[in-house]
């Protein structure tokens, strides 16, 4: 299994590969050109020291490892939060426009300055410059030809890159099957509520937050992260053991693995059992139907209604609307089974000052009062940010009896609050 590997292909072309997926980076007279994307690409680019000026948008393709569009939202967030340059997005007109519209559904929303209401920003044009190749994009001596089947770059009349020549022979799907063959299945029922932390980071650091809740024969995966087969295998979990998926909201760091899950359903003929709010599902369907035309046949959708209890086998699920900055909503969750309860905050701005204004009882710390364990997002650095500052999480711990562990952050071994440990299994006995 190749993970985050940088390989020179020629003097001018380098490839970043991860779990069967890859992007190519070409050095040209007009700057670095990146071809394609993949989950967590912004992290890989930072790790290897790249800053690309031009991004080529291929025709949208997916595999059981992921797709070649997911990743761009956090390229834009990196630019917005940490500073960057406006990139030229080059491709066939329909492909570039489709990517831009999809990004506009999520990236452009934010809080108002007081963190009370959701507003739509004009950020996208700051970082995303649409440049259709009709049929050729030109920038000085650089020429990029993009069609459905191939991408060719020439510079000063010299061919630097022909995608068909550099295409890998082995498909990502074959690697997924190899990975799955090496993981033991586990269908044994759980007598206690069990939580596996698959990831605890966010779109900027680490493996994005994702966890598995098990009881009896139900295995619920919250917010599937990128490269599902590979990531689960690292923690000894077989992808095929997942019985249900819950999506808390539509930000990319919470749906990284969704396209791979759709493609797995397409490959196996076994639909996903997807649980989420109807508004969240509606956007998922809108965004991913162009990739998977049989979307409705690939998903068994069960609506989750905040404020109402829902049962998944022997697991009772409760949900709430969080205070976050997407108009489709963001879910907080509680899972109860075997006399124990897990609280999962989801992305939310827990802040007593804000809640005095919005006056929503479900956002009070008491919502978690009956929980034996709470996974709560935490921000150590920015009290005025969009996520919950650690001082607020500390106050939460003071008013509930269950243990509170932070997540959605970089791991701090000696931080002011205990954190969820990636890969660890928490059993509530």
Explain the layout of strands and helices.
Layout: E1 5-8, E2 13-18, E3 21-28, E4 31-35, H1 41-48, E5 54-57, E6 62-63, E7 66-67, H2 72-82, E8 87-91, H3 93-104, E9 109-111, E10 118-120, H4 124-127, E11 128-132, E12 136-139, E13 142-146, E14 151-155, E15 158-162, H5 163-166, H6 172-181, E16 190-199, E17 210-216, E18 218-222, H7 228-234, E19 244-246, H8 258-268, E20 272-276, H9 278-288, H10 295-298, E21 299-303, E22 310-312, E23 315-321, E24 331-337, E25 340-344, H11 352-358, E26 373-377, H12 390-399, E27 403-407, E28 425-428
Parallel strand pairs: 4-5, 5-8, 8-11, 18-19, 19-20, 20-21, 25-26, 26-27
Antiparallel strand pairs: 1-2, 2-3, 3-4, 6-7, 9-10, 12-13, 13-14, 14-15, 16-17, 16-28, 17-18, 22-23, 23-24, 24-25
How would you describe this protein?
With 429 residues, the protein is α/β, with parallel strands linked by helices. The chain folds into two domains: 5-172, Metallo-beta-lactamase, Chain A; 182-428, Ribonuclease Z/Hydroxyacylglutathione hydrolase-like (Metallo-beta-lactamase, Chain A), CATH 3.60.15. It contains twelve helices and 28 strands. The protein has helices at residues 41-48, 72-82, 93-104, 124-127, 163-166, 172-181, 228-234, 258-268, 278-288, 295-298, 352-358, 390-399, and strands spanning 5-8, 13-18, 21-28, 31-35, 54-57, 62-63, 66-67, 87-91, 109-111, 118-120, 128-132, 136-139, 142-146, 151-155, 158-162, 190-199, 210-216, 218-222, 244-246, 272-276, 299-303, 310-312, 315-321, 331-337, 340-344, 373-377, 403-407, 425-428. The strands form six sheets. A seven-stranded mixed sheet has the order 1-2-3-4-5-8-11. A seven-stranded mixed sheet has the order 21-20-19-18-17-16-28. Strands 22-23-24-25-26-27 form a six-stranded mixed sheet, with helices on one face. It starts with a strand and ends with a strand.
